[in-house]
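Lab notebook: predicted structure, single chain.

Context: the supervisor wants predicted structures on file for every construct in the current expression panel, including those that have not yet been purified. This is the next one on the list. No modifications to the sequence; it matches the entry in the shared construct table.
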Amino acid sequence: MSDSSPAPVLEIWCDLQCPDCRTALDDLRALRERYGDRLELRLRHFPLEKNKHAFPAAQAAEEAWEQGAGWAYAEALLGRVEELGRKGEPFLVEVARELGLDAEEFDTALVDGRHILIVDADQAEGKAIGVTGTPTYVIDGERLDGGKSQEGLRERIEEIADRLLAAREH
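Prediction complete. Output recorded below exactly as produced.
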């Protein structure tokens, strides 16, 4: 098997102020543990209208990615969605500081809007492929909607991932 072929990608369309996405964290951790680098988990932004801090949170997560701590930051926010709901944007900078990131840069990024285009593009692409709620997973062209129930989704993702990985070994 050649190592040059890229790992299969699991896209997770996510709203960082969404309690259902927080529930999905356990599944994401389990998938990362099981597959490591063999499956690429890619966070995609789909901030929902009803969560008024989700859009700035998505921008802040992009800044965290630039500073090399994207997943740690996204997980920290998702673990505290109520706090984000109460405190809003100052909380985004607070979490960055807690993680030892450049908090001033977060503040500036939120003010100058440098990551808005990425978030907008994700959202547009999500809508185009039929994402309506979060979390929604896409792997190998199959869309799995976790917004209503996450029951059995991880098993389905593992099934597809295992199939893709097995196919690469032949």
